[in-house]
Specification:
- The structure holds two protein chains of two kinds.
- By secondary structure, chain A is of the alpha/beta class.
- Chain A is built from 31 helices and 41 strands.
- In chain A, helix 3 packs parallel to helix 24 and helix 5 packs parallel to helix 16.
- By secondary structure, chain B is an all-alpha fold.
- Helices cover about 45% and strands about 0% of the residues of chain B.
- Chain B contains ten helices and one strand.
- In chain B, helix 5 packs across helix 6.
- Chain B starts with 8 loop residues before the first helix and ends in a 16-residue tail after the last helix.
- The chains are: A alpha/beta, B mainly alpha.
- At the A-B interface, strand 1 and helix 28 of A face helix 5, strand 1 and helix 7 of B.
């Protein structure tokens, strides 16, 4: 910091201390004026129009086309629709017909489009760090294959992430029949192992549990962030929200959460208990005993009276709701917890109602941790001669990465296929650029087993290939097309399949796994037979003492696989509102005890390994528990922003990858700046998020939001007659705070990223932000979210102060922002009580990087330096709907205009429409007793964006 | 003591001249600027643009009577009117004038599968979003903006294409047309109608 501050100080001091010289002032002003005049006189450069030679039938220039495809994360598919303009993908939407998207998108789905155009992507094959080409690789491979024929593939290893692609499995089987001794291992830094180990413990075979929250009344989550985490999160979030929409039903579900670090699911809880991860096993043990399971163990001895009462309440509630309850264990919980949870679920009569089991959809080695361990032991025994890394980066994510790197150096031939030349590529002889999902053919299973198709919407930008194409090379079919292989495979499996229809839908019909009924002996006879012996042995009382460290997937970068993605880097993390960094999250109490402040750097030591990390104090974090998110502190050579943050993998022990004890924490005498977008926690006495509880609402729905008082105003009412008056209602009761809206808006409206330095100055550009508030006790607060786009006030304070009329109202009540009129005084932003206006202090939009020019939405202006911008209610979508409606001489239908944020929202918390159309959804919601305008009662801004108050459904018995 | 005067009598005249000339000069500059802004030197109006093939709308539209939509296919559907593909040209020119030297670039484009690169005549700033289809649907003729295109041997801009030209209609739309095409006149002068 001193370096940054040092030099400019001298200059500025000289200038400020100088008495102002009139002559110099006039000279400069005169020159500025003259130059300002000249700068507006640049001639418009000529431009060409390039029509097609033969025009493709389906493309109408100026109209987007949508293609169904899939987004694959850790092997599992979620359906997407890709918007393309003249063959150029620009935006990803959810596929409404896909069971795991239902039209919504997650953060990673939205951000995937930026990965496609990332300028840092690997652009060519390299061999021994020198540029090479695919022909050279093929030549090398042919030589290799000749030797494998004699050795039957001995010493050839393939390492992948978790995969579910049926066609990949077919290729792999063919490869194994050619080279029987070839080995395939899988590696996932944050895996589903505990789910499968748990079900194996309970039922004798690994199973994938599927939850349904449709009819579920009581939900208990044990560190399970089911609203945003996992391949089924979008569907679960929707079902959960449907169970809480009080304006359409007389009931509301109830959520109990026990977790160590606050998650979005925890924030939605009606009752939340922050406890260490390791303690959850004890609490579950006690719950099982209370529910009548013959589990042995003195769990009550390690549980406080307060927790005991909490668990008792849950147990009674579960007993009152047989068959409509669920207990959800988190992936970071150990296998015995998963086993007992599923046994309890069956015991409570959930199977067939809220719970079913299917065979695991994975085709890669199921237990990734074991698989990776045996791979490492083979490495140690020097059995590995030729090694292929397909879309996996173990040099960064392996538990003991320096030892792993050393073992790798003894392998003679290493090939790495990946989107980026990452750490693993740096350790390999060959780096092969991978084709992005939007450039490739493929298939993958969704969480219900149904097969989704991946189709390319653009030719590979840098000639990349996919993992199946590498397998084709290994099979000695270098010329085979990926489409051909895929089509052949599915034609072989199902000759009656309509390929075109499947491609259109993005799914292959009738491929969903049917539920396996876990035989009844398990449930009724548990009483007689007792808990399975292995489980009883594994499920012991855990003594909890000392500081716990937790390793969790990062909310925006996952396990680090999205570290290159700058949208995700700059997206504030839901709880901390932190961008560009991770931090050691600690509770306020632990901070006071250890005399730590935010941004203090601490040294964390676990089992002799040390890393440094800045501290972030997080209300609602369990005491004596530190959470460190994975995915930061990358070492890849070409990516400067990867290096931000602390690499939690360096500390992560292989035997307990999720949480561990024995951590020592030492405060170092330095600080590290953290860029957060919201520094305060409280609402400071204002009722920004109005809330109440469900029983209060049932008694008197109008008791939560006070009725608006008639107000006197000098301002003229906005002249709105019969036609459209656009309005938005955001239902805070179902908003889970996931920020899909923020990213969808960023993609739709060409919003630039600004970088950490600028975020520190408070200049982030998101048009819709999600505010987070804590209420009540700092140790166990109630956590609230509030998405804040432009309110489109009818009495807009911004409009009154604009000297150039750049912001004003249109006839439908939109508060419009006219970029070409804006001169950048920023008065509007100063006068906006909601602080939703964003200013381009510098040239944030990228006009230079060639690949990034392709990402821009052609219907939205790319803003330049010195211009104010803000949410427009996606006016480009409104106008295109209006044009279509006016062509047909009819009014715009309700639901015809869907804003980007609304489309992305997993819980459909955002409703947009015409409030003058009395039958529209938005008009109905605006009359709801829970409807209120933010700060409206004090400021009389009469916002068009309104909120529905938040309700909780606590157990009052 | 002959102390020379610093200002001679003629200085007064010079000072007056400078003052008058200054004001006059400024006024001249202002007027010239105002006038110049609308001249074709600045607006490029009425100046034919060189093209790889000297395509004549006069011949194709005026003399042969080919409908605009034969080539500009998306004009009723989309924001852009669309430019004909080489294939469209070749539907006729593979049969007539198939040996013409003038059409050599078209034949080459078709043969080599290399698109023709036309030079843009009508160019709007990037913050202006004009939509052809709605104007056609509401009965605005092509010639309203594009001038007497059927009399242009080489295509040229028909007017300045400043915002003023748009507002002339958007502020005072044709009364008959409003009724016939049920035009929503209220939105016509909203900023976001054109600027997004």
């Amino acid at each position: 910091m001193s370096q940054i501050d040092g030099a400019p100080m001298e200059i500025s001091e000289k200038y400020w201390n100088d008495p102002i010289q009139r002559r110099q002032f006039l000279k400069l002003m005169g020159a500025s004026l003259a130059l300002a005049g000249i700068s507006s006189c640049s001639p418009i450069p000529p431009e060409g129009i390039i029509p097609y030679v033969i025009a493709p039938e389906e493309i109408i220039p100026g109209k987007p086309l949508f293609y169904a495809s899939s987004f694959v994360h850790a092997g599992f598919a979620q359906g997407i629709l890709i918007e393309t303009h003249m063959g150029r993908p620009t935006k990803i939407e959810g596929n409404p017909e896909h069971p795991m998207s239902l039209g919504a998108t997650s953060l990673f789905m939205q951000a995937n489009i930026l990965s496609l155009y990332d300028p840092q992507r690997g652009k060519s094959v390299s061999h021994e760090r020198l540029p090479s080409n695919w022909e050279a690789l093929e030549k090398w491979m042919t030589l290799q294959q000749a030797t494998w024929k004699t050795t039957l593939g001995k010493g050839v290893y393939i390492l992948t992430g978790a995969l579910t692609s049926p066609s990949f499995l077919a290729q792999m089987e063919e490869l194994r029949s050619q080279f029987p001794k070839l080995q395939w291992h899988s590696h996932e830094p944050v895996s589903r192992d505990s789910i499968y180990l748990g079900t194996q413990m309970a039922f004798g075979k690994p199973l994938s549990p599927r939850y349904s929250l449709k009819a579920c009344k009581i939900i208990l989550s044990l560190g399970c962030d089911f609203l945003v985490d996992g391949p089924e999160a979008l569907r679960l979030a929707k079902e959960f929200a449907d169970g809480r929409r009080v304006h359409s039903q007389p009931e509301m579900n109830r959520l109990y959460v026990i977790e160590s670090s606050p998650t979005l699911t925890g924030a939605m809880a009606d009752h939340r208990l922050p406890r260490k991860s390791a303690h959850i096993q004890n609490l579950l043990g006690l719950l099982a005993q209370m529910l009548g399971l013959p589990l042995q163990g003195e769990f009550h001895a390690v549980i406080s009276a307060e927790d005991h009462a909490w668990i008792k309440k849950v147990a009674e509630d579960l007993k009152r709701h047989p068959g409509v309850s669920l207990i959800l264990p988190g992936n970071t919980q150990p296998a015995p917890v998963h086993a007992l949870c599923q046994i309890l679920n069956i015991h409570l009569g959930s199977q067939g109602k809220t719970l079913s089991f299917i065979q695991p959809p994975e085709i890669s080695p199921l237990f990734t941790q074991n698989s990776f361990q045996s791979f490492i032991s083979d490495l140690k025994l020097k059995k590995v001669k030729t090694l292929f890394f397909l879309d996996t980066n173990p040099v960064y994510t392996a538990p003991d990465h320096s030892a792993f790197q050393e073992l790798l150096s003894q392998v003679p031939h290493k090939v790495s296929l990946g989107l980026f030349p990452d750490e693993t590529a740096a350790a390999c002889n060959w780096y092969l650029p991978a084709a992005h999902e939007l450039e490739s053919w493929g298939d993958a299973r969704a969480a219900d087993g149904s097969v989704s198709l991946i189709q390319p919407v653009i030719a590979p930008l840098y000639g990349g290939k996919t993992a199946p194409e590498i397998l084709s090379l290994l099979l000695g079919r270098p010329g085979s097309s990926a489409l051909g292989e895929l089509k052949n495979y599915w034609n072989r499996r199902n000759s009656k399949m309509n390929w075109k229809q499947a491609l259109h839908d993005g799914m292959i019909p009738e491929t969903t796994f049917s539920p396996l009924w876990m035989p009844s002996p398990f449930s009724p006879s548990i009483q007689k037979r007792g808990i399975p012996e292995t489980l009883q042995q594994a499920f012991q009382v855990k003594a909890i003492s000392g500081l716990e460290i937790q390793f969790q997937e990062d909310p925006t970068l996952s396990d680090g696989r999205y570290a290159h993605n700058r949208w995700l880097q700059e997206l504030p993390k839901a709880m901390t509102q932190l961008t560009w960094d991770n931090a050691a999250l600690i509770s306020p109490m632990t901070a006071t005890q250890r005399h730590l402040k935010k941004e203090d750097v601490v040294e964390l030591e676990l089992l002799g390994k040390k890393i440094q990390a800045p501290v972030f104090i997080l209300p609602g974090q369990a005491d004596d528990c530190i959470t460190l998110h994975l995915g930061y502190g990358r070492e890849a050579p070409d990516h400067p922003h990867h290096r931000q943050g602390s690499n939690a993998y360096l500390l992560r022990p292989s035997e307990s990858p999720h949480f561990a004890f024995g951590l020592t924490l030492k405060k170092l005498n330095k600080t590290y700046p953290l860029a957060t977008t919201q520094d305060h926690w409280k609402m400071e006495g204002r009722s920004l998020v109005k809330q109440g509880n469900f029983t209060q609402f049932q008694k008197d729905p109008t008791s939560i939001v006070p009725l608006p008082k008639p107000r006197e105003t000098l301002l003229q009412a906005l002249g709105v007659d019969g036609s459209e008056a656009w309005a938005m209602v955001i239902d805070l009761n179902v908003c889970i705070g996931c920020k899909s809206c923020t990213l969808a808006c960023q993609a739709e409206n060409n919003i630039p990223i600004v970088g950490k330095e600028e975020v520190l100055r408070g200049r982030s550009m998101h048009w819709i932000r999600v505010d987070r508030y804590y209420q009540g006790d700092e140790q166990a607060p109630s956590i609230l979210f509030q998405p804040v786009p432009c309110m489109h006030c009818e009495n807009a304070p911004c409009e009154l102060v604009c000297p150039t009329g750049a912001t004003n109202h249109d006839t439908t009540g939109l508060n419009q922002m006219v970029y070409n009129r804006c001169v950048g005084t920023r008065y509007c932003s100063n006068n906006c009580p909601y602080k939703v206006r964003r200013f381009n202090f510098f040239q944030y939009s990228d006009f230079k990087s060639q690949s990034l020019q392709l990402i821009y939405n052609p219907d939205v202006t790319v803003r330049s330096r010195g211009v104010m911008e803000k949410c427009t209610y996606c006016v480009q979508r409104i106008r295109s709907a209006q044009i279509e409606a006016e062509k047909e001489m009819r009014p715009i239908r309700d639901g015809e205009v869907i804003t980007a944020c609304q489309a992305a929202c997993p819980t459909q918390a955002i409703v947009f429409g015409n409030k003058n159309d009395l039958n529209s959804k938005v008009a109905h919601l605006r009359k709801d007793p829970l409807n209120y305008g933010l700060l409206d009662e004090d400021l009389n801004t009469q916002p068009r964006t309104t909120y529905l108050a938040k309700l909780r459904n606590p157990n009052l018995l | 003591m002959s102390k020379e005067l610093l200002f001679k009598p003629r200085s007064n005249a010079i000072a007056r001249l400078i003052l008058l000339g200054g004001i006059g000069g400024l006024a001249f500059l202002f007027l010239a600027g105002e006038r110049g802004k609308w001249s074709s030197f600045i607006t490029d109006a009425d100046i034919p643009v060189a093209q790889p093939v000297p395509f004549s709308h006069q011949h194709h539209v005026g003399e042969l009577g080919i409908d605009c939509r034969y080539c500009h296919t998306s004009v009723e559907l989309s924001s852009t009117a669309g430019m004909p593909s080489t294939h469209t040209c070749m539907t006729c020119h593979s049969q007539i004038w198939s040996e013409s030297q003038m059409l050599e670039p078209v034949r080459r484009s078709y043969k080599m599968n290399q698109p023709l690169v036309w030079n843009r005549v009508y160019r709007l700033p990037h913050y202006v979003y004009f939509n052809h289809s709605i104007h056609i649907a509401k009965g605005v003729e092509c010639t309203t903006c594009h001038g007497q295109i059927q009399r242009m041997p080489l295509t040229q801009k028909a007017n300045s294409f400043y915002m003023k030209d748009c507002l002339e209609c958007h502020r005072n739309p044709d009364k008959k047309r409003i009724k016939k095409q049920s035009i929503q006149t209220r939105h016509l002068t909203d900023c976001t109608t054109c600027h997004r």
